[in-house]
Structure formats: C-alpha cells, structure tokens
Amino acid sequence: MGFAVSLLNAIFRRMFTSAGLRPHSAVVDDDGTTLHFWAHRSLLPPSKNGTAASAGSKETTTTPPRPVVVLVHGFGPDPTWQWAAQVGPLSRHFDLVVPALLFFGASTTRAAARSDAFQAAAIAALLAGASHLPGLDGQSRQVHVVGTSYGGLVARHLARALSGKAAVEVGKVVLCNSDLVKGPDDDAALAAKGGVSEVTELMAPADGKTLRRLMALCVHRPPKYIPEFIVHDLLRKYFADKREEKIQLIKGIVTEEDDAQLNSPLPQEVLIIWGEFDQIFPVEKAYKVKEILGEKATVKIIPNTGHLAHQEDPKMFNDILLKFLLPSSVLVNDAK
C-alpha cells in the first residue's frame, strides 16, 4: 500500500480506536463464514489475559446496557474509511458493531451464496452468537441498523433476520442513498453514466480510468485533481482484491422474483437519508423507496451532497441520524 493510502488508513483506524472500538473476527457458520468487525470492547470476548472486556462504552455495573448500532458499509474501501466520521458521535450514546461485509477486507466464506440476504444472515449470526459478542448475551439489547448504498440492501434483510431473536430487539432502521427498488433499467442507466457496458465494470473497477469515473459519480463536488499514485493504490488495495467475488455480489442482489415479500413494508420505523445530487441513485428514488416501506418511513435530503452524503456533510448527516435514533430527552440534555 502506498504511503498516502497507508496514512489515511491509519488515520481512519485511529478514529475507530479513539471511539472505543476494537477489531475482532468470528466464524459465524459451518461454511467457514468469517466476519471481521469492529465493536466496543464491552461487547467483545475477554482478552487473552483473561480480563473482562471494558472501557469501550462507558458502561458500569450500575448503568443499563446501551442500545447497539450496527453500521453496514457499501462498495468501496474498508468500513473504517466509510464510517470514520460517524463512530465518534455515535459512540457517545451507543455501542457500535461495524462489520466488513463478505469479500471486503478480511471477511470471507466458503459458501456459494453471494446475495445481500446472505450478507445479512452472516451479520445476524454474529449478533446472535453468544461467543462472538458476549456483551449481547442474556441481555435484551435494542439494535438499530444503519446501512449505506449496497449496505442499505443488506440492512433491509438484516432488520428482518433479527426479528424474533430472543436477545435482540430491532429498534430503528436507517437507509442512506440505498435504492431498494433498483432494476435492470437503473443498472443500464448507471453503466451509461460511467461509460461502461455493464454496471459491474463500474462498481468493481478493473483500472484507474474506471475508478476515477466511479469516484466522480459518487460525490457532488469531486476534487479537481487526484494523483495517479493514489488512484493506483486505492485500486490495488480496495477494488482489485476479490474483484470477481464482488462482481458476483452485484449479480446476486435479491430481486422480487427471488423473494415476493422483498419490497413489503418493514415493521420498524425507517429513516431514508439521501444526497440531493446523487448520481448513482438519483434523489427521486428516495421517495420511491418510501412508497414501498410505508407510513413508518420518512425521508431526509442532505443538500449539496451526492452518493456519499455521510462523508460529504458528516455534521448534518450525524445530526439527522442522532435526532432519529435518540430519545428526545437525551437530545434535550445534550443541548444544555
């Protein structure tokens, strides 16, 4: 990895550790499905020296366990890059679990499945496994699910997969720039924008030219100049790795033909956040997603942002997110 990318990687990891999160891995099924994830130490198994996990979440024996927020990333670099601006503000109120989706980073599986539903099943197994996250075992912990882009598709399945789990009470769901009603025509339109024949060529770029096109489409105001060595390093580290598997993930996205109940309303309260100038999934899709999710869904548009609204305007995004997730009494106390 080049120096610039290594430096950014170190900065983002430091933001995670400063928020009280620690990296961990767990095998969650019999197919060797292994998820690498970050979580607050209060949720993790005891350290190797036998001491109890501690300090990540400001909990004490006299305070009730805090709600949990699961952050599900989209296509692109590791989740530390994608959620760095959120983990600090969220960690003041919630215990976090931030998984790397299968075939991103160190997460992998021997199973043949490549769907967003399978990704969700793996995360659900992680959350339900007493040995994986003992801080969740034996406690009724409210779990909020937040997903961006492809991670929003996973979050939809995860909210359903967690329903009925004895140790998990699904709280609220947040979908960020995530087109749940995407179809072949949308894929064709996006491929045309990116100057490629298939959408998989754009979302899993094989060369620097295509990666530059993807980066330009993802943000409302892309930088005027990105050095070639940075593009090359990003491509090698985060896009070329497991590229064929990532293409299979795009092709394996569940459709209504696969699941007749796919676009039925979720039982949870849902917040849909969208960037005003999203070129990947145009902003009108936010309202189409709301239509299928029903009366419990609301839409918030972040002005002057694109597909990566949570990174382009993290302050506004975090304010919207916290106002949705936190009880009003907590917000009042925070404002004092």
Any descriptors?
336 residues; alpha/beta; eight-stranded mixed β-sheet; Rossmann fold; 13 helices
Provide an overview of this structure.
Residues 69-319 form the AB hydrolase-1 domain. It comes from Oryza meyeriana var. granulata. This is AB hydrolase-1 domain-containing protein. The protein has 336 residues and is of the alpha/beta class. The protein has two domains: 3-183 and 260-326, Alpha/Beta hydrolase fold, catalytic domain (Rossmann fold), CATH 3.40.50; 184-249, no CATH class. Helix content is 41%, strand content 16%. The chain is built from 13 helices and eight strands. It has helices at residues 3-18, 79-91, 116-128, 150-162, 184-194, 199-203, 208-218, 228-239, 243-251, 284-293, 309-312, 314-325, 328-335; strands spanning 21-27, 34-40, 68-72, 95-99, 141-148, 168-176, 269-275, 297-302. An eight-stranded mixed beta sheet has the order 1-2-4-3-5-6-7-8, sandwiched between helices. Helix 2 links the parallel strand 3 (68-72) and strand 4 (95-99). Helix 2 (79-91) crosses helix 12 (314-325). The chain is globular. The protein starts with a helix and ends with a helix. Mean pLDDT is 90; it is low at 50-60.
What low-confidence regions span 5 or more consecutive residues with pLDDT below 50?
A: 50-60
Describe the strand arrangement of the main beta sheet, using strand numbers.
1-2-4-3-5-6-7-8
Q: Give the overall pLDDT as a whole number.
A: 90
Total strand segments: 8
N to C succession of SSEs: HEEEHEHEHEHHHHHEHEHHH
What is the helix fraction of residues, given as a range? 40-55%
According to CATH, the fold-level topology of the largest domain is: Rossmann fold
Write down the CATH class of the largest domain. Alpha Beta
SS strand fraction = 15-25%
Number of helices: 13
The major pleated sheet works out as: 8 strands, mixed
Overall domain count: 2
Radius of gyration over alpha carbons?
19 Å
CATH superfamily of the largest domain: Alpha/Beta hydrolase fold, catalytic domain
First-last Cα distance: 45 Å
Structural class, by secondary structure, is alpha/beta
Global shape = globular
CATH architecture group name of the largest domain: 3-Layer(aba) Sandwich
